[in-house]
UniProtKB/TrEMBL annotation:
Cellular component terms per the entry's GO annotation: endoplasmic reticulum membrane; plasma membrane
Main location: membrane
Topology within the bilayer: Single-pass membrane protein
Gene3D superfamilies reported in the protein's UniProt record: Chloramphenicol acetyltransferase-like domain
UniProt GO BP: triglyceride biosynthetic process
Residues passing through the membrane, by range: none
Protein name: Diacylglycerol O-acyltransferase
Keyword Endoplasmic reticulum recorded: yes
Residue ranges, annotated region (Disordered): 15-38
Entries under InterPro entries matching the protein: CAT-like_dom_sf, O-acyltransferase_WSD1-like, O-acyltransferase_WSD1_C, O-acyltransferase_WSD1_N
Pfam family, one: WS_DGAT_C
Functional pathway: Glycerolipid metabolism; triacylglycerol biosynthesis; Lipid metabolism
Length: 488
C-alpha cells in the first residue's frame, strides 16, 4: 500500500479561504489541456453517465468538517476544480481552471422531521438527483448531506460525479485516500488484491492458442452486437430512451464469509460466486415476472439471450495513492475495458451449477484479450472517425445488451471518512442506456449489491435484491449439504 503522501490530508491546516480556492497544485501542467478521448466520450448521448456514491455513517455528519477537508483533498485534483469547456470551433473540450466556491458543491439538504420513512426518503432523493445533470458552469461534482437517521446509519451523504472525471476505481481511490483506518488514524485503508496483473498469457502453446481462440470469438460477438445481435426482450430489458429516465438505487448487503465458504468449497473465485448468485437471482426474478398475468410476458421462453457489459479495470494496480491525480502510476481517468458476459437463464437441478456456469464463462473471459480489445477499439474509432461515431457505436453495443455489471474493491477494514466512521459504501451509476446496473462493492465483512433500476422497466427492484440474497442462501445450503453428504 502507498504511504500517505507528504502528510495526512486530514491534518492539513491553512490560512486560505475555505469558501473559495483555485484548486491547482503549483507547477501543475494541466492548464487548458484537452479532455482525454474516453472522458470526452462520456459526454455523448447515450453515454452521458454520472457516478453516485452513497455513504452511511455511525454518527451525525458535521458539514463544516467535510467542507474544510474537501478543500485540501478534492480540490487538489485539477479535475475537481476545473470547468469542462467545449470549443465552439472544433467541438473539443478542455479543462479550464476556475475559482471554486465549496458551498456550490456541498449541499446540506433540508429535511422534514415528520417524514414517514427515512430509508424511502433517501431512495427518493437519489432518484430525483438522477433526473437532472450538474450545471456545466461549475466542476462536475457535488455532495449532498442528509443528516437523518435510517435503519443502517445515523447520517448519509451522497456524492455525485460525472463519469468524465474518472471511473469507479479512480473515485474509490480518491474517497479512500481521504479516509483512514478507524483502528489506526495514521494509516490508509487497504484494498484486496493489490497485486500486479499478469495478463492473459501462459507459457503453454495450447494455452496461448486458447487465448487467441477466445479473443477471436469475443471479437466476432462484439462485432455482431455492434451490427445486429440484440438480447431477448425480457422484463428487465430497457426500451429506447431508457438512459433519460430516472433511476431507483436499492441496496442489499450479504455476508462475505458466506461467499468465501462457497468459494473455498468449490475452488472458485469470489467473482465466480457473485456472478453465479446473480445468474440464479435473474432466473428466479424473471420466472416470477413471466408468470404474472398482468404483463405481456406470459410464457417463460427458452434460450433467453441476456448479457451484461462486464467492466474490467485495466490498471496494473489498485493501490491507494495521493488525491492529486498526478501519480506516476496513472491511476486517474477512465482506464477501463469491458467484456460481453452471457448469463444462462433457466432452472438448475443442482444450484451449484449456477456458480459452475459463471466460472466457465469467466475462465474464458480471463483467458482472452477482450477487455483490452474493447478499449483499443474504442480509442481507434475515436481517432479515425471522431467522437460522434464512437459515441453512436458505444450506445449501440450498450443498448443491445441487458445490463451493466461492475465490481469495485472496497476497504478490508472499518474506515473513517473525514473523522466520521463509515457504515457502508454504495457506488452506482445513472445515464446508461440499460434499465439495470448492478454494482458490487466489498467493505469489511460484507458484500453489497447496489442496483440502479429504471422503474418503468423494473417496478420492483427490491424483489430482485431479495432474490440475490435468497440465491446465495440456496447455493450456500447446497454447498453445506454436499459437504455433509461427502463426510457420510
Amino acid at each position: 500500500m502507498a504511504a500517505i503522501p507528504a502528510s495526512n490530508p486530514l491534518r492539513i491546516r491553512t490560512s486560505r479561504s475555505v469558501e473559495s480556492i483555485e484548486g491547482f497544485n503549483k507547477g501543475d501542467d494541466d492548464h487548458d489541456q484537452p479532455l482525454s478521448p474516453m472522458s470526452r466520450l462520456f459526454h455523448e448521448p447515450g453515454s452521458n453517465v454520472y457516478i453516485v456514491v452513497t455513504m452511511g455513517f455511525k454518527t451525525k455528519i458535521q458539514p463544516h468538517i467535510f467542507k474544510r477537508n474537501l478543500v485540501h483533498t478534492f480540490l487538489n485534483n485539477h479535475r475537481f476544480s476545473s470547468l469542462q469547456v467545449k470549443d465552439k470551433e472544433n467541438g473539443s473540450m478542455k479543462w479550464i481552471p476556475t475559482h471554486v466556491n465549496i458551498d456550490d458543491h456541498v449541499i446540506v439538504v433540508k429535511l422534514d422531521s415528520n417524514m414517514e420513512s427515512s430509508d424511502k426518503f433517501i431512495e427518493d432523493f437519489i432518484s430525483n438527483l438522477s433526473r437532472s445533470p450538474i450545471e456545466s458552469t461549475k466542476p462536475l461534482w457535488d455532495l449532498h448531506i442528509l443528516d437523518i437517521r435510517t435503519s443502517e446509519a445515523e447520517g448519509t451523504c451522497v456524492f455525485r460525479f460525472h463519469h468524465s472525471l474518472g471511473d469507479g476505481v479512480s473515485l474509490m481511490n480518491l474517497l479512500l485516500a481521504c479516509s483512514c483506518k478507524t483502528s489506526d488514524p495514521e494509516a490508509l485503508p487497504t484494498l484486496p488484491g493489490n497485486i500486479k496483473k499478469s495478463g492473459a498469457t501462459n507459457s503453454s502453446p495450447w494455452a496461448r492458442l486458447g487465448v487467441l481462440w477466445n479473443s477471436f470469438v469475443s471479437l466476432v460477438m462484439f462485432a455482431s452486437t455492434t451490427l445486429f445481435l440484440k438480447d431477448t426482450k425480457t422484463p428487465i430489458k430497457g426500451s429506447k430512451g431508457v438512459e433519460h429516465r430516472p433511476r431507483r438505487l436499492v441496496i442489499k448487503s450479504v455476508s462475505l464469509d458466506d461467499i468465501k465458504l462457497v468459494k473455498n468449497a468449490m475452488n472458485v473465485t469470489v467473482n465466480d460466486v457473485i456472478l453465479g448468485v446473480t445468474q440464479a437471482a435473474f432466473y428466479f426474478y424473471l420466472h416470477r415476472r413471466y408468470c404474472k398475468r398482468d404483463i405481456e410476458y406470459n410464457n417463460f421462453p427458452d434460450n433467453i439471450r441476456l448479457r451484461s457489459i462486464l467492466f474490467f479495470n485495466l490498471r496494473a494496480t489498485t493501490k491507494i495513492e495521493d488525491v492529486t491525480g498526478t501519480s506516476r502510476h496513472g491511476t486517474w481517468g477512465n482506464k477501463i475495458g469491458y467484456a460481453l458476459h452471457p448469463f444462462k437463464i433457466g432452472p438448475k437441478k443442482d444450484p451449484l451449477d449456477y456458480v459452475r456456469d459463471a466460472k466457465a464463462v469467466m475462465d474464458r473471459k480471463k483467458a482472452s484479450f477482450e477487455p483490452l480489445f474493447t478499449s483499443f477499439f474504442a480509442n481507434l474509432v475515436l481517432k479515425l472517425f471522431g467522437i460522434k461515431v464512437a459515441g453512436k457505436l458505444n450506445h449501440r453495443v450498450f443498448s443491445n445488451t441487458t445490463l451493466w455489471f461492475s465490481n469495485v474493491p472496497g476497504p478490508q477494514q472499518e474506515i473513517s471518512f473525514f473523522g466520521h466512521e463509515v457504515v457502508y459504501i454504495a457506488p452506482s451509476c445513472y445515464g446508461q442506456p440499460n434499465a439495470l446496473m448492478i454494482n458490487i462493492v466489498s467493505y469489511k465483512d460484507k458484500v453489497t449489491f447496489v442496483l440502479s433500476a429504471d422503474e418503468e422497466t423494473i417496478p420492483n427492484p427490491h424483489e430482485l435484491c431479495d432474490d440475490l440474497e435468497e440465491s446465495l442462501r440456496i447455493i450456500k445450503a447446497s454447498v453445506c449439504s454436499s459437504h455433509t453428504t461427502s463426510k457420510l
